[in-house]
Amino acid sequence: MEKKIGFHYFQDLDHYQDKDLKLWQPELESLHAGWLVLKASPTHAIPEDFIRGLLLSGVQPIIHFDFQVNTDVRPEDLRILLSSYAKWGVKYVVFFNQPNMRSAWKPDTWSQGDLVERFLDRYIPFVRVAEQNGLIPVFPPLQPGGDYWDLSFLKKVLTLVKQRRSLDFISNLHIAVSSQTFNHPLSWGAGGKRNWKVPRPYSKTELGEEDHIGFNSWQWYADLVYSILEIDPKIFLFYFGSSDIRTSVLDPKATFEELIDFALSPSEEAGRAADQKNNILGCLFWILSSSEEQVEGRTAFFDLSGQPKNAAIPAYKQKLEQTRKQNLEYAVSDKLAEWIYPIDHYLLLPSYDWGIPENTLDRIRPIIRDSRPTIGFSLIEATNARKVTIWNENGAFSVHDIEILRQAGCLIDELTINSVSISV
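The structure assignment produced for this chain is given below.
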């Protein structure tokens, strides 16, 4: 089963000790999780043992530096950190968080002109230093709507990188997209601009229309990227299962089972719509765990002791365990079949005291070409095969011989041969 399920980890830097790994590693394994977004410091690394422990469990960390856009942190300041993360096995890194929000910028700098240009001038050098160290940069999530309308922000970013021919941005584009529901149904805005009018910034949706501010923002973003760059980006869905992270509310209408089904089911559409969903690498629930004293604690799926707070999680873990056992049984069954039948397909040829008819080898060439069987003349050896094709030329094998093969459990494919024809 493809590992698309993941989580956002604690929103602090205090849970990277050995005891934390021992607590959460088995939980992530039991959920068949493949991703974990880790909040990172620009001055010191997440411990190597924590990173390697996740990787050994099949969980790929996504390192997230969410310092403000225009802080004093320079790309060169992160070079050693990025090199270390890459050496330990990390593949993905995110710089900044929701840059279309005022809170992502230092005070008194938001209202200065050319906001998107300033963001891109700041962002591209981080992209380059990440790629130089073997990491894949993931474009940071935007807040749907936002203080700067997110579709307008993204459109201007894409237009600028195309004008600048920033191949380091375009060549392997990965983006993080919000999948908050904002209390809309999971179907809200599905199909993007193929089904709905492109909303005007900050205007109310027309009666009967739906916009991108909901669970399906990723479709609108993917369409926008393709319309400008003519590529389909790889996508991570952030804040999966949350109604609105600003108020830390889970959407009671978006059940855990429905979200899991979306993540693991193939697209019901065709063409580019299916391709877009196939490009979703990870669905990252908000949030794995947090203290109840923190605002995000209200949306945590586990408490601090590792106990699930969502009643659907134990049932889902049990279902995964049953599937694992079934797969193990099938694997054992296959191995058992290989032991019972050491030969898959045997072509049994007659042998005469005077030798083999000269044209027999020519006549069996099609069988050899199509089935590549084990070829022999021994009835006893043939009883070790799952299937036996009997080249019964001129009655060389008796009814009793064939019955011996049937009693051995072989599938029989008898070819009765005479000098002029073959009948099956």
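Interim note for the steering committee: The chain has two domains: 5-309, 341-423. Residues 419-424 have pLDDT under 50 and may be disordered.
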